[in-house]
Design a protein that fits this description.
Layout lengths: L4 E5 L2 E5 L2 H12 L5 E6 L1 H9 L1 H9 L2 E4 L2 H9 L12 H14 L4 E5 L4 H12 L5 E4 L7 H14 L3 E5 L4 H9 L7 E4 L3 H5 L8 H5 L3 H7 L1
Parallel strand pairs: 3-4, 3-8, 5-6, 5-7, 7-8
Antiparallel strand pairs: 1-2
Length: 223
Amino acid sequence: MKKFEEIIIFQTRFHKLTVNQLIQYLVDSSKDSRKKIVGHVNIRAMNFAYELPWYRDFLNSADLVFCDGFGILLGAKLFGYSVKSTHRMTAPDYIENLAKACEKNNVSLFLLAGNPGVVDKAIAKLTAIAPKLKIDGHHGFFNKYGVENDEVIQKINKFQPAILYIGFGMPLQERWILENSNQIDTRVFLPLGACLDFYTNSVYRGPQWLTDSGFEWLTRLLT
């Protein structure tokens, strides 16, 4: 499997790759016998990595970490790395292309995120553009310990997804992966925060020209 250039900022590393390379990596990893974790970094993640040693270790030990913020690209440039805007990607923008790739390669997907109802909306949108996609899901508002957590894991394992998308927000989703990965029958763990909320328009991201230019944070600040 292809190796990507590592970029290290303040003792936290991520990889230099494009969205198409990320999607191909996810598909290839879903066929691997070894479980893999694919993380992402933005300014919020870097703050957690600075404050929480376990979170920094999570990112530094993940199999792949992609850039999800223009602020990170700017930081990389200041540290002397050669990066372009194409080396930054955010999940709401590529989730449909990922779904199409999963459909084409017979890769199953489980969505574990969002308020009740958000997952259903996301599944409806994704199957509209990828009708043969094997997909299931469960909302993210459940007790992450005890019986309720065990029941969710049982549902995941019954479906046996190749890729498990987890969207609880940082750093809860990463902690949940660390504490539960050994019990879960999946090939790829993919923590992606509020992706489904934005994808289903449950939360407004802002106009595309604003998000494409690196000012999505401004919409969140003002709304």
